[in-house]
Design a protein that fits this description.
about 140 residues, alpha+beta, 4-stranded antiparallel sheet, 3 helices, about 15% strand, flat, membrane, transmembrane helix, transmembrane
């Protein structure tokens, strides 16, 4: 069953540049949801998100603004010899977090249970189970 597309919006997922189609849920809830070709279905039903979809929905793909093309960063001004010498001596105080200690110190080894211990526990459990079955049959 194909749902009717009510409009189109820019995909609400952060970082996605696709155009998502807007559909409406069936049944009593009757809320909007979006389907992006890259992100998939987004069924957030909060009042703010529903209002955002209603405000930004357009009837066709052409009316959706294409994402702005990232502009190249402006070139840095050239430094003169005198300014670079003073800048190299004046370093801002940069504090970096200390690295965590990754040396192989005391490594806790998992506790190993012997085969005899495991067999004893299983034997005891079998004895209890067998006794219960014997009582039920008798």
């Amino acid at each position: 069953m194909s749902k009717t597309i009510h409009g189109y919006v820019a995909c609400p997922t952060h970082g996605c540049d696709q155009i998502a189609s807007v559909l409406k849920t069936s049944g009593t809830r009757n809320q909007y949801y979006t389907r992006c070709p890259e992100c998939g279905c987004d069924q957030r039903n909060g009042a703010k998100h529903q209002q955002w979809i209603a405000d930004n929905m357009r009837p066709s793909h052409a009316e959706i603004k294409e994402p702005a093309v990232a502009q190249a960063p402006a070139p840095l001004p050239e430094k003169t010899a005198s300014s670079s010498a003073t800048e190299s001596t004046q370093r801002p105080d940069v504090t970096r977090p200390a690295r965590p200690d990754t040396s192989p110190g005391e490594v806790k080894q998992p506790v190993k249970t012997s085969k005899a211990t495991r067999m004893g526990v299983l034997g005891f459990a079998g004895m209890i189970f067998g006794g219960l079955v014997g009582l039920c049959i008798a």
